[in-house]
Amino acid sequence: MVTVLDTIANAPRLRHPEKAHKPDQDVLRKPDWIRVKAPVSKGYAETREIVKSNKLVTVCEEAGCPNIGECWDKKHATFMIMGEICTRACAFCNVATGIPTALDPDEPARVAHAVKQMGLTHVVITSVDRDDLADGGAQHFAEVIRAIRAATPSTTIEILTPDFLRKEGALEIVVAAKPDVFNHNLETVPSNYLTVRPGARYFHSIRLLQRVKEIDPSIFTKSGIMVGLGEERNEILQLMDDLRSANVDFMTIGQYLQPSKKHHPVIRFVTPEEFKSFETIGRTKGFLLVASSPLTRSSHHAGDDFARLRAAREALLAKSA
């Protein structure tokens, strides 16, 4: 029987999944609304030095986030734990695929030190997928959360986790550490999963988010998707309903940008007006907060969004009292 470990062991380390699309495909020209300036500020350089001196990895760099200049200038960064190598090969992602290294037991302390150095009031922690680990890295997530709490008790913590597929008990370990926000991205609509997110299962991800609320209703839940991957508008609206059926509080919607010609192509660039309409529809469906714009990413403006999210819940509770 072929196991996940067999598959990983036989897989080369790749920056771009070989299964992706033809390198000679037409590349759509970026519209003006999706363009950003290159990062050159003093704040950016200072953040980069803190990240490097603590020997940490950020998804900002690994995923080629277009907002890195803006966020790092403000000393905001999303730390990516458990290494730089992912056990999956999603067609949209620029993180390397292959055989991961062993977990670093000192990483939680280094992350906590960097959070303190940067003076973060809100921090986002994400990771690569670690299908090679019995718990998918759940215990490591919990240790990072506890280390940050010990170093900077007032810092609110948002985590962006893998799906912990077939990792019984993993979710419970993470939820017990009590992050303030539990984020797990659906990434795209169900019809795209085989080509865009082949290692994942759509309804497992929905159920994961639902279970967080069942275990601890006080934790905010969050999920996001990219658009421009060939999805239909009605599929996005159905996905919104699926998230609301799982009591998800916050949804993010952003434009997919192709990291290289070997990745899934951009089928179209969604207009700012369409993004605004998704935000309006999402609010009518009952989300406490919807962030929807071409440059929206899971952790973009996460601190400000958390404040808005908490205020929205308080307003809702006051209204129902």
TrEMBL record:
<feature type="binding site">
    <location>
        <position position="86"/>
    </location>
    <ligand>
        <name>[4Fe-4S] cluster 2</name>
    </ligand>
</feature>
<keyword id="KW-0963">Cytoplasm</keyword>
<protein>
    <recommendedName>
        <fullName>Lipoyl synthase</fullName>
        <ecNumber>2.8.1.8</ecNumber>
    </recommendedName>
</protein>
<keyword id="KW-0479">Metal-binding</keyword>
<comment type="similarity">
    <text>Belongs to the radical SAM superfamily. Lipoyl synthase family.</text>
</comment>
<dbReference type="GO" id="GO:0016992">
    <property type="term" value="F:lipoate synthase activity"/>
</dbReference>
<feature type="binding site">
    <location>
        <position position="60"/>
    </location>
    <ligand>
        <name>[4Fe-4S] cluster 1</name>
    </ligand>
</feature>
<dbReference type="InterPro" id="IPR058240">
    <property type="entry name" value="rSAM_sf"/>
</dbReference>
<comment type="pathway">
    <text>Protein modification; protein lipoylation via endogenous pathway; protein N(6)-(lipoyl)lysine from octanoyl-[acyl-carrier-protein]: step 2/2.</text>
</comment>
<dbReference type="Pfam" id="PF16881">
    <property type="entry name" value="LIAS_N"/>
</dbReference>
<keyword id="KW-0949">S-adenosyl-L-methionine</keyword>
<keyword id="KW-0808">Transferase</keyword>
<feature type="binding site">
    <location>
        <position position="299"/>
    </location>
    <ligand>
        <name>[4Fe-4S] cluster 1</name>
    </ligand>
</feature>
<dbReference type="InterPro" id="IPR013785">
    <property type="entry name" value="Aldolase_TIM"/>
</dbReference>
<feature type="binding site">
    <location>
        <position position="71"/>
    </location>
    <ligand>
        <name>[4Fe-4S] cluster 1</name>
    </ligand>
</feature>
<feature type="domain" description="Radical SAM core">
    <location>
        <begin position="72"/>
        <end position="288"/>
    </location>
</feature>
<keyword id="KW-0408">Iron</keyword>
<feature type="binding site">
    <location>
        <position position="65"/>
    </location>
    <ligand>
        <name>[4Fe-4S] cluster 1</name>
    </ligand>
</feature>
<dbReference type="Pfam" id="PF04055">
    <property type="entry name" value="Radical_SAM"/>
</dbReference>
<dbReference type="InterPro" id="IPR031691">
    <property type="entry name" value="LIAS_N"/>
</dbReference>
<dbReference type="InterPro" id="IPR007197">
    <property type="entry name" value="rSAM"/>
</dbReference>
<keyword id="KW-0411">Iron-sulfur</keyword>
<feature type="binding site">
    <location>
        <position position="90"/>
    </location>
    <ligand>
        <name>[4Fe-4S] cluster 2</name>
    </ligand>
</feature>
<feature type="binding site">
    <location>
        <position position="93"/>
    </location>
    <ligand>
        <name>[4Fe-4S] cluster 2</name>
    </ligand>
</feature>
<dbReference type="InterPro" id="IPR006638">
    <property type="entry name" value="Elp3/MiaA/NifB-like_rSAM"/>
</dbReference>
<keyword id="KW-0004">4Fe-4S</keyword>
<dbReference type="InterPro" id="IPR003698">
    <property type="entry name" value="Lipoyl_synth"/>
</dbReference>
